[in-house]
Design goal:
Beta-lactamase, 7-stranded mixed beta sheet
Length: 401
């Protein structure tokens, strides 16, 4: 596999390598591909710094070779770059793995997308208009269930002091669902769309009920191991990230507890059970791309189940404003770009922001890791109305050179 690498730290070119560690039999990417696209993506990665990204790592996989660029710092205090093979929390990109696992079970006739949640988890969802007897598995994966967001009930970690005091707390899936049940249903199941992490916590519980194994075990057994995603992990309650990794920075309202006025505090170490099946996983740019390309190429799901995953519904005005043309399938988002459209599922979790995209045929996939989830733009710079990685993803997926 041809790999093209470029890097910038603090706006100064640090490394420029043509083809690194090419495997036997691989051919280097064409010179024009190497020079033009690498330069474009390097400029895009550098541009993310003005929006408050401490560091940026980008990998694009294509049939003509892989392009990797980085910018800024993985550790601001030490002024070291993001490791090329950095592991990072992928946040809600976890949902695509979970949805694919559920759909494999559908393909094996162990459940149906039209099954009611009550069949698997009797009595769990029965409060304030939330009713598992009316919610289907499809509606969980599609975010059309009306289940309220459980994070609305997590109010003691909204400040730097609160975060530091609660970062090692363990939540069970039942804890998270119970937090959700404190709030009324947002709408009748199937009548609207609204993104809620609660949906995927419940989906993870369904996987466990059907298989007798945790959702982590099933994702590992069905996806991570078969695809040889050696740097992808499901940490459960383990708070650390395997080496190498960047420092994940997080800013909170006010100045108290934010040792670095620009980037905030070090939020790398945290118990990810607060995210559970909605966003717990850890991966790398290489593994993240490998999974998305395999998914779109039909190597993860049977044709019928992949078709179900890619059957989309309208999202909200707010989501479409941030992600032009956004429609949601089952654990995956469709967006438009300059060459037609792409599939994606980003993720945000304290300390890390993941953005990605893959072409419909699975031939090109790009993953972006930023080591903060709380962007703080330079003075005089405003965040764009669209997602900050929009232009980079477009260039990666639509630039044929």
């Amino acid at each position: 596999m041809a790999v093209i690498i470029a890097a910038t730290v603090a706006g100064t070119a640090m490394v420029g390598v043509g083809v690194a560690q090419a495997r036997t039999g691989d051919l280097p990417a064409p010179v024009e591909f190497r020079s033009s696209l690498t330069a474009t993506l390097q400029a895009d990665a550098d541009a993310l710094r003005k929006y408050g990204a401490p560091g940026v790592l980008v990998e694009l996989d294509t049939p003509r070779g892989d392009v990797r660029v980085r910018s800024g710092y993985g550790n601001v205090a030490k002024r070291t770059p993001v490791p090329w093979d950095a592991k990072f929390r992928i946040g809600s990109y976890t949902k695509t793995f979970v949805a694919a696992t559920v759909l494999q079970l559908v393909g094996e006739r162990k459940l149906s997308l039209d099954d009611k949640v009550e069949r698997f988890l009797p009595g769990l969802i029965r409060s304030k208009g939330n009713d598992g007897r009316k919610i289907t598995v499809r509606q969980l994966l599609q975010h059309t269930s009306g289940l309220p967001e459980y994070f609305m009930g997590v109010t003691d970690s909204d400040t730097a002091e609160g975060f530091l005091n609660t970062r090692f707390r363990t939540y069970t899936d039942v804890d998270l669902v119970n937090l959700s049940m404190k709030f009324p249903s947002g709408f009748a199941p199937g009548s609207k769309w609204d993104y809620s992490n609660t949906n995927y916590v419940v989906a993870g519980m369904v996987i466990e009920k059907v298989t007798g194994r945790s959702w982590q075990q099933e994702v590992r057994r069905r996806i991570v191991k078969p695809l040889h995603l050696h740097d992808t992990s499901l940490p459960g309650t383990k708070p650390t990230i395997p080496l190498p990794h960047a420092v994940g920075y997080q800013r909170f309202p006010g100045t108290a507890g934010n040792p670095d006025p620009r980037y905030g505090l070090d939020a790398t170490v945290v118990n990810p059970s607060m995210a559970d099946a909605a966003g717990e996983m850890i991966s790398t740019t290489d593994d993240a791309n490998k999974f998305m390309r395999a998914l779109m190429s039909g190597k993860v799901l049977k044709r019928a189940q992949l078709a179900e995953m890619l059957r989309t519904v309208e999202t909200s005005d707010a989501v479409r404003a941030r992600y032009p043309g956004a429609r949601y399938g089952l654990g995956i988002l469709w967006g438009t770009n300059s060459c037609g459209g792409f599939w994606a599922h980003g993720g945000d979790i304290p300390g890390f922001m993941t953005r990605n995209g893959v072409t419909p045929d699975g031939s090109r996939s790009v993953t972006v890791s930023i080591n903060t989830d709380s962007l703080n733009p330079d003075a005089g710079v405003q965040l764009p109305t669209v997602d900050v990685a929009t232009e980079l993803l477009d260039h990666a997926l639509c630039n044929a050179r």
